[in-house]
Design a protein that fits this description.
The chain has 148 residues and is α+β, with helices and mostly antiparallel strands. 14% of the residues lie in helices and 28% in strands. The chain has one domain: Beta Complex (Metal Binding Protein, Guanine Nucleotide Exchange Factor, Chain A), CATH 2.170.150.70. It is built from 3 helices and 10 strands. The strands form 4 sheets. The protein has a 3-stranded antiparallel β-sheet, with no helix packed on it. The chain has a 3-stranded antiparallel β-sheet with strand order 6-7-8, with no helix packed on it.
Length: 148
């Protein structure tokens, strides 16, 4: 995760119709961790993610999205209401009463993770695809099969 104040580059992008726009201040993408996983929503939407601190991201048109929550509702996948593109993710985490029952170190970890703003780099302009390294991860989906 990039921290505010480092030598950063500006990346801009957005959905197909322009209703949702994103600005990201980041180290060059070839210098940061980029992840792709096999969870069904990421596979179906082609989400390749970076996970910067919220302070490094500007979202315009968030009100033009429809958030799809799944599973326990800890995460949301907002889609542009007009063109359907999935530009970023929403993190909600567990309910506060669940979080309060966790050990303090785990609470701190969860709260720190909730300071992240997931972004789909496929919507950013100027990505040097031949220079980035995308790390692939198995997100606990063993035995799960996407239906044709």
């Amino acid at each position: 995760m990039d921290a505010p104040g480092e030598d950063l580059k500006l990346y801009i992008g957005g959905c197909e119709c322009g209703a949702v726009q994103v600005a990201l201040k980041s180290k060059p993408l070839n210098d940061i961790e980029i992840k792709e996983d096999n969870c069904s929503i990421c596979v179906r939407n082609g989400f390749i993610g970076v996970y910067p601190h919220q302070s490094l991201v500007t979202l315009v048109g968030k009100d033009q999205t429809q958030d799809y929550k799944f599973g326990r509702g800890f995460n949301g996948s907002p889609f542009c209401r007009i063109c359907g593109v999935h530009c970023f993710g929403n993190l909600y985490g567990p309910p506060e009463e669940v979080l309060a029952r966790l050990p303090e170190a785990k609470q701190d970890f969860v709260r720190k993770q909730l300071e992240v703003q997931p972004l789909n780099i496929r919507i950013l302009d100027g990505v040097e695809w031949d220079r980035i390294d995308i790390k692939w991860g198995n997100e606990g989906t063993e035995g799960y099969v996407l239906k044709d």
